[in-house]
Amino acid sequence: MAAxxxxxxxxxxxxxxxxxxxxxxxxxxxxxLYEPIHYLMSLGGKxxxxxxxxxxxxLYKSDAKSVIPYAIAVEAFHNFTLMHDDIMDNAPxxxxxxxxxxxxxxxxxxxxxxxxxxxxxxxxxSLEPAVIKEVLAGFNRCAAEVCEGQQWDMEFETTTEVTExxxxxxxxxxxxxxLGFSLELGAILAGASxxxxxALRSFGVNIGIGFQLKDxxxxxxxxxxxxxxxxxxxxxxxxxxxxxIKAREKAKDKQLKELNEWLSVKKFNKKKKVEAVKSIYDSxxxxxxxxxxxxxxxxxxxxxxxxxxxxxxxxxxxxxxxEALIERQS
Length: 330
What we know:
By secondary structure, the protein is mainly alpha-helical. Helices cover 76% and strands 1% of the residues.
């Protein structure tokens, strides 16, 4: 019964959140500035970050609807980063649809992204004086770290050697810290203790690292029918994922030579390259190493969740939501 009630509560929050996101207005004129924002925000996605804010808040209070505007601010910031990332990556598609810079143009995408960030601060400016300083301090720290992570990611594209530690730090900054802030935000708005806020932020950061490592693994090994995009995309792009970093670290002699040849070749059969590199990964036991590392970060995250002052039943919904994301195969 409790599990069923939790699922109903979760679905109810998701429906309300999606409805409020679709209703949110960011400005009117010029239309060409604000229409791209509505377009990008309407493309869907898991809405992971705002849901984490609402679920963290719900650990302490029952009126989660009251903080939906601030959950939407987190989602708007996330989409601002996507809009600018797509320009930097020259990406043609986002969630199966044209990216903003492709549908409009690069200059419009830059300006629309900029105004999205302004609107995030506008939403946060309506917070009560008792919490606004702490929220903005946490958000500013997080926003700067996300930019640092994106810069490291771009620098790694032209860096010959990237260590495991450097890669983990990059995905922590680029992806995981925003999950941590999303949870911390919910806790701050609910008046949780500093200890609980820190524990929730740690939970988010660690599962965020785990999620990205799992994405690395799924990119190479997922069922194509479930994955929703080309399997092996990271291999084809020579992306320095955890898998490639560990393979280059462990490969010797003939294997290392073969791997480096595939990394340097300019013209190749896509299917053949993916199969060849995966064969090297398999022989080096890289998928098992990746699974072990993923599970280590998920375990660290749940250890932090267990430290919260709230009872087990109150944590059940957040725990189940995170577990469902961990179990996904796409």
